Amino acid sequence: MIIKKLLPMSMLALATSMAFADTELNALFMSQAAYSEADIKAMTAEFEENNPGISVALEFVPYEALHDKIITSAAAGTNGYDIVLYDVVWPAEFAEGGFLTDVTDRVPKDLGNQIFDGAWTTVTYNSRIFGMPWILDTKYLFFNREMLSQAGIETPPSTWAEVMEQSQILKDKGVVKYPLVWSWSQSEAMICDYTTLVAAHGGSFFEGAKPAFNKDGALAAIDYMATSLKSGLTNPASTEYFEEDVRRVFSNGEAAFALNWTYMNALVNDPSESKVAGKIGVMPAPGVKGVSEASAVNGSMGLGIPSNSAHKDEAWALISYLTDKKVQENYAKLSLPVWKESYSVKSVTEGQEELVSAASKAIAVMSPRPVVPAYTEVSNILQKHLHSILLGEESSEDALADAVKRVSRIR
């Protein structure tokens, strides 16, 4: 069977002469944040319609299960996944472990400058490319304009210190019991919030090969987090929350400020999903006076082909379709495109001008989490010790000193 032309494959179109036998692709995706399950199902249905020789079996799992699913599928031989969604922090581990297919030679050479650098880091390791960027994401500061107005606050905060100051005003005036809500469960969600604050305070995870998260800006970041809890400004349940919990609390009108991914913008302004629709503003996460003007974490994700896939050409066809500029522009309400030109396209900007404006500033300052093959181990150690600080079980100095020792042993 001759594959039909992949529409609208403007940049990554395959040669129409390529022939594929009837094939079912097994694809692994995430069930939260970014593109919705409905969006992904719609995209793949469009692909199948244009490519009747290929069908796609979709599996959705929580982010927390994604990493281990990819690793364990390597033992399934050709019965494993053909396409996987993976986080920006995993390429080093997956490349070193041989879990992903090197697709450097498949990627058109002229794509480099058309896609944001922060998106390319998602799929690149040692100058080789292991997939295509698909989700360009960072966390933004969402704020409730009505609550700020009720407290007599005329403008949203421009620094993290002002976030704390305005939160205190909101609490003192009885506008909201807990002005702040975060995703600080012992998970990667907390690490993303922490990374944002580390960047704002000018800190680093490593200095050369040595861990540096027990001093300077990295220490100041966790102290900021702990102080917001101790002062009663942060909802204490934040230490158990994931991103969807944050969205729920904020959408119920139970918080004035929230740090969350792009997808929350559309949902928090949807009256069927939110009690505060139309009252919300969004801005880049602020900076620290004298140190930074804005802060952001690189939460981007890519699509790759596991090394044991028996259908690499067909898998690349689907990846090429899903990451195509026109396709991304058609589904830009929950996840903004990885393509630079898309940010001036009406279908992307209309109705979410404030978000696109915030993105243009935040994308430029996205800070990476540590790019190391042992990232998962590093993150797990940090999660444990950061969480113990937030729960008041350890001092920040003692907890992070211990974390440095443990990370030094594996690095």
From TrEMBL:
Keywords: Signal, Transport. It comes from Marinomonas ushuaiensis DSM 15871. Residues 1-21 form the signal peptide. GO terms for cellular component: periplasmic space. This is ABC transporter substrate-binding protein. SUPFAM superfamilies: Periplasmic binding protein-like II. It comes from the Bacteria. It is found in: Periplasm. Transmembrane segments: none annotated. Belongs to the bacterial solute-binding protein 1 family. Its main location: periplasm. The keyword Transport applies. Pfam families: SBP_bac_1 (PF01547).
